[in-house]
Amino acid sequence: MARTPIHLRPTADLAPRVLLPGDPGRALLLAQELIDGPKMFNHHRGLWGYTGPAVADGELLTIQATGMGSPSAAIVFEELCDLGVTRAIRVGTCGALTSLELGALVVATAALCTDGTSQALGGSGAAPASLDGLHGDVEGTIASSDVFYDPRDTHDEWRAAGAVAVEMEAAALFTIGARRSVAVGCICVVSDVIAEGSRIADDALEAASKRMGHAAVAALPV
């Protein structure tokens, strides 16, 4: 029996292709940049989502915020799968574990399942991305973590496993996508370089986020 979503309450059509920012503010920014006349898809629980024809190709596109962390992202994505999404790309931020530049776009080819949600869903090792055609400045494995302000020193461990950056949602999304037969990718802006303690400026983050959005839509042809 199909489940009825309880956290998303759609007020517009869902496109089969979806961008998944964590931040509701980034969902609005990308909707204004990428959609011609966006309509609100969801506002329940502060998880802003928008739907409308993409400026790039005129076909329907949905941008839906997932909130921070893999538990919230997993709930939102499971409900989108129940509603009929077929392709999804996480569009977020990440912290560089290697010598990446602030504002660079990192395409995740796989995500280390170092978060509890992906492991609870059966993920282990590195969960692979399943959507082709996504291009950025760097491609590689990333780590997904439950903890933003982490007192543990796990960076060397993640680097040893091949991770170039860390974020909080991709492993869970990749794991769910594999189980639900939904193609999933991930592209992130480098917002922090962890070893340097440096942080991107707000205006540079906004510009990089728009560039990320255009790269994501280009990977979701109709």
What would you say this structure looks like, in words?
There is one protein chain. Helix 1 (about 25-35) crosses helix 6 (about 200-220). It is globular, with a radius of gyration of 16 Å. It contains six helices and eleven strands. It has about 220 residues and is an alpha/beta fold. The protein has helices at about 25-35, 70-85, 115-120, 155-160, 170-180, 200-220; strands at about 15-20, 40, 50-55, 60-65, 85-95, 105-115, 125-130, 140-145, 165, 185-195, 200. It has a single domain (about 15-220), classed as Rossmann fold (3-Layer(aba) Sandwich). The two termini are about 30 Å apart.
- CATH architecture name: 3-Layer(aba) Sandwich
CATH class annotation: Alpha Beta
Low-confidence stretches: none
Largest sheet: 5 strands, mixed, barrel
Percent range of helical residues:
25-40%
Quick take:
The protein has helices at 24-34, 70-83, 116-120, 155-160, 170-180, 202-218; strands at 17-20, 39-42, 49-53, 60-64, 87-96, 105-113, 126-128, 138-144, 163-167, 183-193, 198-199. The chain is of the alpha/beta class and 222 residues long.
Descriptive terms for the model:
222 residues; alpha/beta; five-stranded mixed β-barrel
Task: Describe how the helices and strands are arranged.
Elements: E1 17-20, H1 24-34, E2 39-42, E3 49-53, E4 60-64, H2 70-83, E5 87-96, E6 105-113, H3 116-120, E7 126-128, E8 138-144, H4 155-160, E9 163-167, H5 170-180, E10 183-193, E11 198-199, H6 202-218
Parallel strand pairs: 1-4, 1-5, 5-10, 6-8, 8-9
Antiparallel strand pairs: 2-3, 3-4, 5-9, 6-7, 6-10, 10-11
Helix pairs in contact: 1-6, 2-5
